[in-house]
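task queued by scheduler; priority normal; single chain, no ligands, no partner chains; default sampling; output format set to structure tokens
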Amino acid sequence: MTTASIAGSSGASSPARPGLPLSGLLALSTAAFTAVVTELLPAGLLPRMAPDLGVSEARVGFLVTGYAVASFLAAIPLTAALRGLPRRPVLIGVLLGFAAANTVTALSSSYGLTFSARLVAGAMGGTLWAMLVGYAARMVPAERRGRAIAIVLAGITLALSLGLPAGTALADALGWRAAFAAPAVLAVLLVVWIRRRVPGFAGEAPGERVPLLRVAALPGIGTVLSVTLTLLVGHQVMYTYVAPFAEHAGFGRTGLVLLVFGAATVVGIWVTGVLVDRHLRRTLLAALALLATAMLALGAYAGHAAVLLVAVALWGVAFGGAPTLIQTALVDASGAANADMATSLQTTVYNAGIAAGSLTGGLALESSGAAALPWTTLLLVAVTFATVAAGRRRAFPARRTTE
């Protein structure tokens, strides 16, 4: 399918609305799955990796930190440098980069070499996240954009709920090196899938490239980015320190809490996929209201186990669909042509929010104890809700415009 045919298929003149290109969207979703597994896998394998690499478990933990920092630093410059190239070869190159980095990690006995491979993987991750949403948006008519993005981002949830536990189980059975070899093989197989099922798109011609600062200044972009930041900070305040909060509440089974949260995010993604294209603004406001209700319940009644688990489930449902809603709003504001650069900004803000949320939660925990965590999150969710409510004209309009 050519770029011209994509443009032609996005109009309303077709007598029958075409179905979603599920195979191609699922390939992109699998790419998201691969990136998340690659990023977080070392966190579950610290005791196994440390002896083989001759370092402490804390230094193995830095393999996750290094990935995140490289992703943060690479997203904008690499996206800008590659924006003129055809999109499918860039996507394939990123996946081969993941395959190479995971292969080196699986074979290396040197911490320095392993850390370098993780930096490469992080740079690939920053580039991938800047591409995926824009790619999905160009594969479907604008009025079906939200559902396509929901399918792609579902790979994140599957990685967290299935991929990482499967990687840990594989490490138990065959060793930690096999756990890194698996996503390397998956990335190579994914290249074949993408070549067959994902359409190619041209890069941006030199005269058509909107400078980064002009993309950032487009109406609505700043509001969507600020919503991304405050929501991620608020979420990470609780999520990073869910274990000490569960202990504070007298519920020591943190694994069960995380399982409930993960299962609920799947529900949130499904509900969002159904509603996003018709009711983006209302769905996001409802999700934020639900999240605020969950934090209020956790702050006031977490000592009751049933209330704790129900509130965590509501939190998962509310947060599960939030990335889809926010990224769809971002692409609506930027237009599909500027989606990669806009998403590179959001990738940077997203990582900044994760870091700031972890820091904020740590400060709240040290200064006021675990009881302060849900109230801190509630304040940030309230700010996010007010920002969305105020963004009615540009960032989160009552009625979405389609290209």
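post-processing summary
- Residues 212-390 form a domain with the Growth Hormone; Chain: A; fold (CATH 1.20.1250.20).
- The first helix runs from residue 3 to 9.
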